[in-house]
Amino acid sequence: MARDLRSSLIAVVALTAVFGLAIPALFTGFAQLAFSSQADGSLIKVDGKVVGSRLAAQGFAKPQYFHERPSATTPAYNAGATTFANLGPTNPDLAKAVRQRAAAILKLERPFNPGLTIHGIPVDAVTTSASGIDPDISQAYAQLQAPRVAAVRHLPLATVKSLINDNTDGRSLGFLGELGVNVLELNLALDRQQGR
């Protein structure tokens, strides 16, 4: 029995050293060498100060900024607690949340888009993403917000639309997924455009 106990203890120590220390250190070292920005969280810095991550949304509420998708986390846009709403398409809570979000968007955007109806609001504007903190919005949602942002910032609409195009990510491998506009990068580009 003592021999079995000693063998078990050696196995636990050896496996912990290999799988708990050596392999994670190897992968971390490789990631730092090959993909240092991604391994560090794809952080975005302005004047040497971290302002966010390219991979996680943050809340923008001011009218001069593009707004992101709704968040499913508590508190909102909490990258440390990603989650999803888990509400099915027939769930009355989902329908209620979508109606409330659509009403808020109509109230905010209609002064700048007089013909806007609920049918003109893209799905990603009123639904949360799988992670609850998706940093991208669709081009349709960005285009919907462009007149407001241009008017509030006193910029030509063409300039704002050009910035949307400049900050649109293509499909993965050229054919997977949809085009997406990174909201943080777009808002930072707007600030740079106006020297902020």
Keywords for this entry:
196 residues; mainly alpha; 2 domains; three-stranded antiparallel beta sheet; two-stranded antiparallel ribbon; 6 helices; 5 strands; 46% helix
In words, what does this structure look like?
The protein is mainly alpha-helical. The protein folds into 2 domains: 1-40; 43-193, no CATH class. The protein has helices at residues 2-34, 36-39, 92-109, 139-153, 157-166, 183-193; strands at residues 43-46, 49-53, 136-137, 168-169, 180-182. The strands form 2 sheets. It has a 3-stranded antiparallel beta sheet. Strands 1-2 form a two-stranded antiparallel sheet. Helix 4 crosses helix 5 (157-166). The mean pLDDT is 87.
What is the topology?
Elements: H1 2-34, H2 36-39, E1 43-46, E2 49-53, H3 92-109, E3 136-137, H4 139-153, H5 157-166, E4 168-169, E5 180-182, H6 183-193
Antiparallel strand pairs: 1-2, 3-5, 4-5
Helix pairs in contact: 4-5
Give a brief description.
Helix content is 46%, strand content 8%. By secondary structure, the chain is mainly alpha-helical. Helix 4 (139-153) packs across helix 5 (157-166).
The H-and-E topology, N to C, reads as HHEEHEHHEEH
Q: What's the number of domains?
A: 2
Ends apart, CA distance between termini: 72 Å
Average predicted confidence as pLDDT = 87
Helix content: 40-55%
Largest sheet: 3 strands, antiparallel
- The shape is elongated
Number of strands: 5
Multimerization state: single chain
Structural class by secondary-structure content: mainly alpha
Catalogue the unreliable spans. none
Radius of gyration: 22 Å
Query: How many individual helices?
Result: 6
Strand percentage: 5-15%
- Spatial order of strands in the largest sheet: 3-5-4
